[in-house]
Amino acid sequence: MVLDNYKGEKKQFAPEEISSMVLAKLKDVAETFIGVKVKNYVVTVHTYFNDSQCQATRDAGVIAGLNVIHIIS
User: Fold this and answer.
1) I need a labelling partner for 27 at 20 to 30 A (CA). Which of 44, 49, 60, 69 fits?
2) Of 21, 57, 65, residue with least CA distance to 39
């Protein structure tokens, strides 16, 4: 868990929640840049990620509202 002051209050975040915030921001930036709403996503991870880390990344995508169709390492 990560403890942080979020909007003036202390809050705990799971690593997947932090990753989901990053993925959601990347989604917004990409859609703004290309001018099209994207439905499906492919996410890349480091080659040394194990299965549980890949699953955590997939979970972060779901939390961010993404339809992650594939994880590439």
Assistant:
1) 49
2) 65
